[in-house]
Amino acid sequence: MVIPGIVSATFKTKSIDEVLCIAKAAGLDAIEWSENHHIAKGDVEFAKEVAKLTQESGLEIAGYGSYYRLGEGMDLKPSLETAKALGAKMLRIWAGSKPSAALTEDERNALISELLEAVELAKQYDIVLNLEWHKNTLTDENESGLDVLKTINSPYLHTLWQPTQALSFEERKEGLKMILPYLSYLHVYYWDESGRRPFDEGLEHWREYFSVLEKDKKYYALLEFVLKDSEEQFYQDAAALKALLQKGV
Q1: Three-class SS state of 60
Q2: How many CA atoms lie within 13 A of 21 on its CB side?
């Protein structure tokens, strides 16, 4: 089962109410709230307010998109406390800031050690950490990302997935297959060599991506990176996503 939704950072400058209105008008069912753009980490009371507003809007909270990054000496607790107040069961984090192939063995081991500590802390909050699947991190290559997930091997560490431009279509699809046991949800958009494009231009790719998913498992498919940050384009993208999902891919 794939539930369509929105990454709130799609509309960085819009208010909580505006984002909720757009999501509902588009007929979406879930949202990932952004730490940097909508709910600042540590603002627990505001997170509780947003949780109530989201529930009243009939949307599920897919997760809290934090900008905690391994290797930067950051404190994860404020993000976890905010996610807890928001009612988010999943918290997005970033797996470092260097390409996996450029890391020395010691640097990689240090990131893994920090991630182990982060997972243990998240367990105390009963929140699942999710790695951002992104270039210039430990998850920039399929094998590296999978190795991290297998090494930690915890129900409190999963991953998100998105079609990074650093890989070919075939590599993206293969990577998605590889990480299925650890996959929580997907960030949905379509880019070509020129950058952002309307989602309906990438339907063939996304039909293939969705076909890989396990039929009896729940996933969120959350739209972001809209062409020109256009609200009108977003509604078109949402309609195309919903139509694709309704075909039972």
Answers
A1: strand
A2: 6
**Using CA atoms, how far apart are residues 49 and 219, in angstroms rounded to an integer?**
25
Say if residue 5 is exposed, middle or buried (CB neighbours under 10 Å; 0-12, 13-18, 19+).
buried
- Assess contact for 172 and 141: CB atoms under 8 A: no
> According to DSSP H, which parts of the chain are helical?
16-25, 44-56, 77-86, 105-125, 142-152, 169-178, 203-212, 231-246
Structural contact between residues 130 and 158, judged by C-beta atoms closer than 8 angstroms? yes
Q: Say which DSSP state 12 is in.
A: T
Q: Are 203 and 192 in contact (CB under 8 A)?
A: no
> pLDDT-based confidence at 220, cuts 50/70/90?
very high
| Six-digit token string for 236 | 């078109």
Residue 72 has pLDDT above 80, yes or no: yes
Render the burial of 140-155: b for 16+ CB within 10 Å, e for the rest: bbbebbbbbbeebebe
Beta strands at 30-34 and 2-7: parallel, antiparallel or unpaired: parallel
pLDDT score recorded for residue 247: 80
- For residues 200 and 121, give the distance between their C-alpha atoms in angstroms, rounded to a whole number: 41
Looking up tokens 């997907």, which residue turns up? 186
SS3 94: strand
CA-CA distance, 184 to 85, in Å (whole number)? 20
3-state helix, strand, coil in the chain (%, to 5): 45, 20, 30
Write out the two tokens for 124. Answer: 């105390």
Q: How far apart are CA 233 and CA 216, in angstroms?
A: 31
Instruction: Give the whole-angstrom CA distance, residue 54 versus residue 87.
Output: 10
| pLDDT over 90 at 166, yes or no | no
